[in-house]
Amino acid sequence: MPEAAFKLEFKVRDYELDLQGIVNNSVYQNYLEHARHEFLLSKNIDFAALHEQHIDLVVSRVEINYKAPLQSQDSFVVKINTEKQGNLRIVFHQIIERIPDGKVIIDATIIGVCLQNGRPVKPEDATGVEWENK
Amino acid sequence: MPEAAFKLEFKVRDYELDLQGIVNNSVYQNYLEHARHEFLLSKNIDFAALHEQHIDLVVSRVEINYKAPLQSQDSFVVKINTEKQGNLRIVFHQIIERIPDGKVIIDATIIGVCLQNGRPVKPEDATGVEWENK
Amino acid sequence: MPEAAFKLEFKVRDYELDLQGIVNNSVYQNYLEHARHEFLLSKNIDFAALHEQHIDLVVSRVEINYKAPLQSQDSFVVKINTEKQGNLRIVFHQIIERIPDGKVIIDATIIGVCLQNGRPVKPEDATGVEWENK
Amino acid sequence: MPEAAFKLEFKVRDYELDLQGIVNNSVYQNYLEHARHEFLLSKNIDFAALHEQHIDLVVSRVEINYKAPLQSQDSFVVKINTEKQGNLRIVFHQIIERIPDGKVIIDATIIGVCLQNGRPVKPEDATGVEWENK
């Protein structure tokens, strides 16, 4: 993933580590989610405000390959690219790389859909934003 | 998954819900992990004690399909079956079903490996337990 | 706290442990909250349903004394007693005891208030339940 | 708390919100802990490395006053001052203020002790750092 449509830097927090002294597997989903929400905000798509309008962005599928663990004090970047899949699905390709050595920590593919009053709708219709593949 | 090698029942806790009023995506990994650790304990494999012996059970890949959300007060069961993949990998097939209606909430495939001083070893050698496919 | 108005049993989950191999300090607040919500449900007070009616039960103050840590595989019970403080505050006295030896893990005092459209109201008025001191 | 010995800025992440749409009470302890650990690192005290040497910094008491909630997209600063209490205790005075309006979200008093092989020791002896009151 040489160029990313969006990047966000983080630092590991010690409460995210488990007894193995590494970031717990589930916490990477928190990182990925926060990066996606900041990416969406950068396109004026506000997860919390949409919920108030009965439009919910939800995840229908997650695939994560764990390559190497993050540890106490590690810094890292979450990179995002997206593409459309059919009319209803947005695919988020997300990679976490350690800083400064660029080691790949995880790569992930997340499929998101958009629900209006509980039914799938086209993301463009619900969010007013055109998705390009990148 | 009609018969499961292991089952564990849970109840949703309100702090696990996010602003959409549903269990946050990452929390399902917590449920899946806890069920796996209890399953391993039932086979006398103790995640925490193994770590003290420099043997670490780690996850190398996660696939989760989110079918329906859990909400406040929902009860549910995590079901597990396993199979070996090659010499080094254990595949955990995990399903979460809501109680009492049996609605499938997620299905997941988790690949685990066993590291001794950081290097992959056969799970049998590290844990002293034979794995059957079920 | 010899007699408790409410008790709830839990088992530690490994993802709740931090790199010290003990339950992270913040997680005890999760245990305390879940026990309070189950206690409230036992009195037909439904935290999530009240939120839909714009009535929010919130915590205004927490005091926790950490006496001993919980570790992997520990079971424990959260005990609750309550008393009113003035017209607006409910005080929850909560203790966590390890099972089976009864060792006190934490004792806590949590002050809760009831907000209707953001303003404090008498808990009786909002929930329809009389509080006795116990 | 006009001058703080240490400050750290954060932004709320949506997975930290609960169904009330506000940061869950327990999450503030995560913020406070991360700020303390970064503060300690700024004094060359490394929580994770000390644990490897059988020296554990632990919390013995927490008092938190919740003044106002944080919501989606809020930025905030955690401010820290410390003082010694007797020979064995460090008191952390911590305040969270919303950015940019400075509204006080919580104020907290956290008491920390230092354990070496499970027994309390003087923080100076274990960490090699003199504590001044500020």
User: How many angstroms does the end-to-end distance of chain A come to?
Assistant: 10 Å
Largest sheet of chain A: 6 strands, antiparallel
Global mean pLDDT of chain A: 94
Work out the helicity level of chain A: 10-25%
User: Which two chains have the most extensive interface, and how many residues on each?
Assistant: A-B, 22 and 22 residues
Low-confidence stretches of chain A: none
Strand residues, percent of chain A: 35-45%
Rg calc of chain A: 15 Å
Q: What is the overall silhouette of chain A? A: elongated
Assembly annotation: homotetramer
Q: How many helical stretches of chain A? A: 3
What does the model show?
The structure is a homotetramer of 134-residue chains. Chain A has 134 residues and is α+β, with helices and mostly antiparallel strands. Helices cover 22% and strands 42% of the residues of chain A. Chain A is elongated and about 45 Å long. In chain A, strands 1, 2, 3, 4, 5 and 6 form a 6-stranded antiparallel sheet that branches. Chains A and B meet through helix 1 and strand 2 of A and helix 1 and strand 2 of B.
